[in-house]
Amino acid sequence: MTLRELINSVDSEQYSESALYKKLRETKPEYGANRRIQVKLVNGEVTITNVHVGSLGDILTYQIDVAPDLQITKTQLLDEILKEVASNTFSDEEQAEFWDDFDNLQKAKIIR
Prior knowledge:
Layout: H1 3-9, H2 19-26, E1 36-42, E2 45-49, H3 56-59, E3 63-66, H4 74-85, H5 92-102, H6 105-111
Parallel strand pairs: 1-3
Antiparallel strand pairs: 1-2
């Protein structure tokens, strides 16, 4: 399943306050990148990798690979992915710049 399919399969009422969820619902998928979101358990915690991209349109097309031994619901999976995408590893200024340009497909294509 892709991230787009996961987003469309989870109850949107639960995410009615999530700005990132709303933005992802509105974004048109881009195609061409063949990357995969990796979900696994590391030291007892769910770990998500391969979610940092140049545009939302790219990440929507990524397949999600969940480790076979990880028991996780679709809602839990989406929660973990959204937390990772929106992680607070930036300063406030860096985060503002990132979100301002995140859906700028032209800039994302130039960076690649």
